Amino acid sequence: MSLRLRTHIEEIITLTDAEFDYILSHFELKKFRKHQFVVQEGNYVDQEYFVLEGLLKSTYLNDDGKEHILQFSMENWWVTDYQAFNNYEKATLNIDCIEDVSVLVLTDFNKSKLCSEMHKMEHFFRIKTNMGYVGLQQRILSFLKFDARSRYMHLIEKYPQLYQRVPKTLMASYLGVSRETLSRFSA
């Protein structure tokens, strides 16, 4: 399990065994069952999650009770309610498990500690944050620039494994189309 995290970090920085052991000591392994919440709206968030195994969805529930899927998170992805995590606020998102999930949990305190003690880790998290912003911008622009069929084609091209694991109803919601429209796209 820890090899997955090390490989992920070393895509950006290099580590000695001692450095990685120290980094790993700041994480806690947690397991969640399918349909279990990792983050729940209204609760304070002081943890960030690195997905080792499984699949999660981040959702926003509007005032009319309609669920909007912001993102899916699978192996080697980081997830939390970043607004709540960074601003010490209550969550506005729900993050729950589509499959059974294993994550490495990093508290805000431990993340700050690692970043202050190891410039390498501060660099790593800065790069990961920038990549997250780029991904979010691409998602927003896809809704502005492309029709639903184009968004669908892009998604299955970029993340074929995600498409195979996410129930079609959730995939349709993520793309902003009905289940019937999604069925027409995949026919």
UniProtKB/TrEMBL annotation:
Pfam entry (one): cNMP_binding
Cyclic nucleotide-binding domain mapped to chain residues: 11-70
Annotated PROSITE patterns: CNMP_BINDING_3 (PS50042)
InterPro entries, sorted: cNMP-bd_dom, cNMP-bd_dom_sf, RmlC-like_jellyroll
Superkingdom per UniProt: Bacteria
Name the UniProt record assigns to this protein: Crp/Fnr family transcriptional regulator
Native species: Dyadobacter frigoris
